[in-house]
Structure formats: C-alpha cells, structure tokens
Amino acid sequence: MASTGAKRFDRSIVDGPISGAVWKLAWPTVLQNVIGGMQGVVDHAMVGHYVGYAGNAAVGVSLQIFIVVIVFVMSLYTGMGVLVARHAGAQDHDRVNHVVYQAFVATMLLSLLVLAPLGWFAAPWLLDLVRAAPEVKVQALQYLRISFLGCAGTMTFFLLGGALRAAGDAKTPLRLGLAMTAMNVVLNVLLIRGVGPLPALGVAGAALGTVIAAFAVSGIGLWLMLSGRLVVHWPTSQSRRIDWPTVRQLFAFGLPAGLQGIAMNVAGVMLLRYIGSLAQSAEAQAAYAIGYTELFSLVTWTSVGLMGAAAAVAGQNLGAGKPERSAAAVRTAAGYGVSIAVVIGTLFLTMPRVLLGLFGMQDATVLALGTELLRWLAVSGLFISVALTFTGGLQGTGDTKGPLYISIVSQIFVPLGLLALLQGVRPLAPSDIWLAILCGHVTRCGLSVWRFRRGAWRAITVAPAA
C-alpha cells in the first residue's frame, strides 16, 4: 500500500539497467562519504597544526573507541535498511514509513539513556584499555566525553541517510552531508584555534564542532521528513506508539551487523594496544591515526558508499522478486570499487610525504612510519574495496550473519593471531602491524565473495510490519 500523497519510489532501480541503478545510488553516496569524511580530515589537519601530533593521536584513538561503543545502536540501521529496501522494492510506502519511525524511536532511547551516560563514565577506562600515551589520554578524554554526550545528533544523521538511501533517494543525504561538513569546517575554525572572544579549545573544539553540526543538520532532515517533502515521511495518521515486534525485527537483522562492527572495531582497539607496546608508541599511533584512520579512508569512504548502493539495489530487487539483478548489482559495485582503489593506491605510492604533510606531520619518525604504512595500504585497498561491496550485497539481502562470522575470522583471529605469534618470538616492529592489517583484508575479501556466491541470501524473507 502507498500512503496518500507520498512520493513514488524510483522504479529504475528494479527495472532499468543495473549499472545505471548502482551508479544512481553510488555516486551521491560516495561523494557524501568523501565530503563527510573531510570533517575528520579537517579535525586532524587543524589539530595537527595547532596542537601537534599528540592531538592527532588523541582524535584517532577517540574515534576508534567511539565507533566501537556506538556501533550497537548503528546496527539498527542495517536492519532498517534491509526492511526499507524490501518494502520499497514492493512499493509499500506505509511499511517503509513505519519501519523508519520505529528505528528513530529506538535510536533516541538508546542514545540518551544508554550511550551518553555510559560513554561519559567509561571514557577513562576505555583510554586505559588501548594504552593511550599519557599526553594523548589527557586530550582524548575531552574529545570522547563531548562525543558521547552529543551522540543523539550523530545517530539521527546516520539514520536519515540510511533510510533514504535504502528507499532509493541518495541525493537528499548528499545535500545534508554537504551542509553538515560546511558547518563543521566553520565551527572547527572558530573552536579549535579560537577567533576573537572565543578561546582556542584544541581537541575539545573539534569534538564540539562535530556535535553542534550533527544536531543542526539532523534537525533539518527531521523537519523535511515530517513535512512530507521526502520519499520517507511520517504522516499525521501514522501511529506514534512503539511497535515492539518491528523493533525486534530491526535487531534480528541488524544485531549481527552490530556485532560485526564491534568485532571489527575491537580488533582496531587491540591493534592500538599492539601499537602502544612499540618502542615509539606515540609516533606510531600518530602515523596510524593519519595513514589508516584518515588517508586510507579515501578508499573506505568510497567503498562504504558503494557498499550502501549495493545493499539498496540488491535489497530492492530481491523485494521485487529479481534476485539475478541483485547479484549483478553487487558485481558492478565491486568493479567500481577496485577502479577507485587503484587510483588512490597510486597516490599512496607516489606522494606519501605530501599527503602526510597535509596533516602537519613534520616529525621525521612519524613521516617514516606513515610512508611505510601507506605502501602496505596501497595493496590492502584493492581487497577491502571488494570485501565491502560484497558485504553490502549480503547485508542488503538480509544475510547479516555471514559478514559477522567473516569479520570475526578476518579482523580478529587472522591479524591478532599473527601479531600474538610474532610477539611471542621477538619484539614487534611497526611493519608487523601493517602486515596484519593486509592479511585481515585479504581474508575478508575471499570469504565475502565466497559467501555471496553460495546464494543462500536468495531464500531470506522478511516478516510484514504491524
């Protein structure tokens, strides 16, 4: 059924050429991820210039921890994406609107009642867990606590983008992302370095700017949705009560993705522990924060955008009863991802010091470690781009358990097992960390392709919303 006056879903996603359907959702999503990711680049660049490499390390460590903690709430959006794409493929507006509203209510409850207080009190312990250097911990604590207190705005921004993309509208999230990035850049200039009567807040200013921008843009997005201007909206006739069966279904599909995210990011935290055990831990953490967290994001931003496009197109076509188009969409997205990874990898190999210099990296040891890391990541990007697009295909069609199992093997057992083995033989070197990252990505790529080609996702069904 379709709600009265609702905008029509884009039928070209299930009826038009596959390459066009994927590209229609991919380019705005990729561009949004790249531009949105520039917020982190701006944070790191300004912090690097005005605070130093310890500030860079503080932002990088804080973001790694923050993602680990909020990934449970974000698992809702994977479940939401599965249901929205299926119902959109079946042209059912009412069920799409209902699912998104239930995801929003659950997000608010979890963000305000769980994440904010938990993050505030657990932040010191979490920083000790990753063995943050003393000069890093002081600044990271401010960043973490501000991020947790303002997480409701960030979560709502992710929810809006995920819902609209799954429904076939990738341009509105792009516009919202542009607005958020522009606002964040302005706030960073004002808050990190200080202007006029505003004091220089350093790392805390970077966190505060992101939180304020997220709340402002999320408010605009909610207004657009409530006013009926988007393909997903909440009409006045829609019930505002919590529908627990739908919330349970969101978690049934989303929780494996959340556990997958936790596994991946716990692995990242454990990598930070290994980095913290190196002789030059602060310099290595700074190189990791810039090389992997920021510069490698040029690959992951685009691949995650393609992952979202693959998930939406595959899910909608499965909902429309066209599984062969779902499979073709994932292969097409993977081809786009590899092409982009080749270009970015070439930059890593040919101009590493220029790229690192953009973040104020001038310490000789940090530059040497960062250059070495980028060489490894130039190869690793090819594998992670394929892995992520096939992960999108699995998750978009409802197979969220497969990527969980794959992540446990590829992101925990393989890299951490390798490092534990090497550490038992000799002291670890930075190149051992970089090798472990590559091995994990190669494993994830192979297992993701294998799982998707098995085709078990074709038989997955979803229950109707209440």
Structural features, described:
The protein is 81% helix and 0% strand. The chain has 16 helices and no strands. With 466 residues, it is mainly α. The N terminus is likely disordered.
Features:
single chain, 466 residues, mainly alpha, 16 helices, globular, disordered N terminus
Brief summary:
This protein has 466 residues and is an all-alpha fold.
Helix content, binned percent: over 70%
Looking at the structure, what is the overall shape?
globular
Beta-strand residue fraction: under 5%
Instruction: Name the structural class.
Output: mainly alpha
Helix and strand run: HHHHHHHHHHHHHHHH
What is the makeup of the main sheet? none
Work out the helix count: 16
User: In angstroms, what is the radius of gyration?
Assistant: 21 Å
Low-confidence stretches: 1-5
Beta-strand segment tally = 0
Distance between the amino and carboxyl termini: 13 Å
Mean pLDDT: 86
Number of domain modules: 1
Walk me through the topology:
Elements: H1 12-15, H2 18-50, H3 53-89, H4 93-129, H5 134-149, H6 151-166, H7 171-191, H8 203-226, H9 244-276, H10 281-295, H11 297-319, H12 323-350, H13 352-357, H14 364-396, H15 401-425, H16 430-454
Helix pairs in contact: 2-3, 2-7, 2-11, 2-12, 3-4, 3-5, 3-6, 3-9, 3-10, 3-11, 4-5, 4-6, 4-9, 5-8, 6-7, 6-8, 7-8, 9-15, 10-14, 11-12, 11-14, 12-14, 14-16, 15-16
